[in-house]
Amino acid sequence: MQQRIDEVERRIQEACARSGRNREEVRIIAVTKYVSTETTIEAVRHGLLQLGENRWQDAQAKWHALQDINGPALTWHFIGSLQTNKVKEVVGRFACIHSLDRPSLAKEINRKAEQLGIRVPCLLQVNVSGEDTKHGLQPEELRGFAASLADLPFIQPAGLMTMAPYEAEPEETRPVFRRLRELRDELNRAAVLPEPLHELSMGMSNDFEIAVEEGATWLRLGTVLVGKEEEA
Questions:
Q1: Got the DSSP string for the chain?
Q2: What is the pTM of this model?
Q3: pLDDT tens digits, 74-103
Q4: Using an 8 Å Cβ cutoff, are 161 and 201 in contact?
Q5: Does the 2-226 domain belong in CATH 3.20.20.10?
Q6: I need a labelling partner for 17 at 20 to 30 A (CA). Which of 49, 84, 89, 102 fits?
Q7: Which is it for strands 96-100 and 120-125: parallel, antiparallel or unpaired?
Q8: pLDDT tens track for 8-63
Q9: Exposed/middle/buried for 232, CB within 10 Å: 0-12, 13-18, 19+?
Q10: Which residues does residue 50 pair with via DSSP β-bridges, in sequence order?
């Protein structure tokens, strides 16, 4: 695993150098949905303390195991599509939700966060590519949805998230990542939210270098970083 981590680090540093960015601006989420609890523990012991999961039912055993090992040193990110009836399982366990994409979900996150007395950082998921198989707001819906969050004080809008199509040539994902950055900057210029958005969660194993060059602040890396197992 250390060899994979070192190789990813080299590639991120080179992408930062090409685009004139500081390496400190780019953070890695180790996506552990395709690996076992044992491999997840190994990843943490190698210093990967930002973990991403798509579903609580898959994350549950890992979450409990790592509470006993690393406790508060770990940060969990919920990166999958979140069903409204699963919010109660996620809020309070995951430090950030990367997939806020509809009013009903926002209201339920706000309600559960209020019960717990916490404010939940959320990224607004945008379907920049327009694929039917992708979740997320349409770009033209983003401004109105963002403005509606002013009525939900227990949600902290922190940035935007998108998933690019899988491309054999990663360079072809560049317009998707560039557009997400533009959408964030447009929201900030219009002061739609009380506080500016900083985060861009974009880039996965196949295309993360392009995402870095276009401004990603969170990379969601699974196979390229921690591998993939048949039985997780």
A1: -HHHHHHHHHHHHHHHHHHT--GGG-EEEEE-TTS-HHHHHHHHHTT--EEEES-HHHHHHHHHHHHHHTGGG-EEEE-S---GGGHHHHBTTBSEEEEE-SHHHHHHHHHHHHHHT--EEEEEEB-TT--TT--SB-GGGHHHHHHHGGG-TTEEEEEEE--PPP-SSGGGGHHHHHHHHHHHHHHHHTT-SSS---EEE---TTTHHHHHHTT-SEEEESHHHH---S--
A2: 0.93
A3: 899 999 999 999 999 999 999 999 999 999
A4: yes
A5: yes
A6: 49
A7: parallel
A8: 999 999 999 999 999 999 999 999 999 999 999 999 999 999 999 999 998 999 99
A9: middle
A10: 75
Is 227 a residue whose pLDDT tops 70? yes
User: Which residue type, as a one-letter code, is found at position 51?
Assistant: L
Residues shown for the chain:
232
Domain ranges of the chain: 2-226
